[in-house]
Amino acid sequence: DESDLICEFRFGSYCLWRREHKEKMEDAVVKRMKDLLFVARAYYPSIAKLPLFEKLSHEMKQNIQDFERVLSETTTDKDLPPGNEKKISKMEAVIAKAKSCPVDCNNVDKKFRQLVDMTEDESNFHMKQSAFLYQLAAQTMPKSLHCLSMRLTVECFRSSFDTEPALLEKFLNPDLYHYIVFSTNILASSVVINSTVMHAKESEKQVFHLLTDRENYFAMKFWYFRNKYKEASVQVLNIEDTKLFDHHNVAPLHLSLPEEFRVSFRRVDELSFSLSRTEYISMFSHSHYLLPKIFHTLDRVVILEDDVVVQSDLSALWNINMGEKVIGAVQFCAVKLAQLKNYFSRNTVYEKSCTWTSGVNVIDLSRWRAHNISETFQRLVQEMSREEGKSETAALSASLLTFQGLVYALDDSWILSGLGRNYGIDLDSVNSVAILHFDGNMKPWLELGIPKYKRFWKKFLDQEDSFLSDCNVNQ
Predict the structure, then answer these.
(1) Same domain assignment for residues 345 and 414
(2) Does the keyword Transferase apply (predicted)?
(3) Dist CA 307 CA 113 (whole Å)
């Protein structure tokens, strides 16, 4: 309904989570008491001003205090104290007397409006507070994952290991299947790699380049040193220490992960101007535009986000003929560029073009370099940041504009998105696609994760791993 649309417009997927977890409360009597208290508070100031009704005024005050005391300790009907029906009867009788008194209706009306405003303010405060705590839970690393990272970091410094020369050759060999994963989450990246390799027909051709930050580098390095994924190879890179090919680093590099943007649309007709829907778009970050200079020996790579699970062999992605296109992506035609034209400043857009989403993307690095994609993106971000003043919105707009006309549409069967926010996805659909994308705040490694989808992610964790057991990761 309209209230749900407004809630999602203001607070995003928190409203979807709240609606799903809303408990049915047996509180009919409590609500009735709150209504009576509301009416009594509205009448009391007017009654208190009438000298002839001092006894009624005292009685109303006493009943209001009794109700406030009971309701401060009660949320459901079963919590109400014995003999509560007598209190309700007394309050109803007092209100009936108050309504028969010669009070100024305008004063009562004003008090009602004040109470309504106060109630709405209180409701908005609690809604904002709950939405903030939801976001905090979504963005905070669980204690078990923090434990895992710390344990692995300590073990890394206790151990000594070197990369084999044969592996170094594989990391540079353009004839192999190269996957790029940006991540600061050991478990998430491990599930991506494990699920990809488990379904690969030729695991020896799979090469994974995991880009992380300095804080997580040593834990990641030790994890992938001690865990093998069939015959696949894994390279862990600290993006902050990466030297870009044919480029002088002016400023230090920092890892930025893919971002999700919330876009709401309004429906306009002759009688109303209301919200119609909210959509979510997952898009490249600034770090993605460093890839051609980091992997200067490679011609084609596949980018997998760290919140995906692979369910089939992906080798066909290397055989797709993208023509002159730079990027292969699943299009998201629920949002078209024309609907976002206000974000594109003075730039021209193809109005019928669909937006596209990250999750799985095939990148032709040769054509990327030929089209100067990275330089175009940086220029657009700077221009839009100066005009709009919002770098987050500028990144979304610049990404869509940079690849405009250069996107090869992958078949929808490659990926199913929304498993981190949409409770209503049919399990038959989940089983029928190549890749599951847990985009949204309700990631499968969090308590917030949607239970019916979690098993598709958890089955690619090693339940017997001693580090996971010691940190209670599997519980």
Answers:
(1) yes
(2) yes
(3) 48
Antiparallel, parallel or unpaired: β 415-416 and 435-437: parallel
Scanning 371-475, the segments in alpha helix (DSSP H) are 373-388, 391-402, 427-432, 451-458, 466-470
Q: What is the DSSP letter of 419?
A: T
Domain count, the chain: 2
One domain, residues 328 and 368: yes
How far is the C-alpha of 420 from the C-alpha of 430, rounded, in Å? Answer: 13
For 173-216, the pLDDT digits (tens) are: 999 999 999 999 999 999 999 999 999 999 999 999 999 999 99
- Residue 327 sits at the vertex; the CA angle it makes with 324 and 333, to the nearest 5 degrees, is 110
Task: Please give the model's pTM, rounded to 2 decimal places.
Answer: 0.83
Q: Rounded CA gap, 174 and 45, in Å?
A: 82
Does residue 106 sit in the same domain as residue 220? no
In a 10 Å sphere around its CB, with 0-12 CB exposed, 13-18 middle and 19+ buried, how is residue 356 labelled?
Answer: buried
Q: Are 197 and 190 in contact (CB under 8 A)?
A: no
Residue 349 has pLDDT above 80, yes or no: no
Residue 8: which of 280, 259, 354 has the closest Cα? 280
Q: What whole-number distance in Å separates Cα of residue 339 and Cα of residue 332?
A: 13
Last residue of a domain, one of 117, 139, 161: 139
Tokens in use for 454?
């979690």
Helices (H) and strands (E) in the chain, counts: 17, 13
- Which domain range does residue 373 map to? 144-470
Name the domain boundary from 97, 123, 139: 139
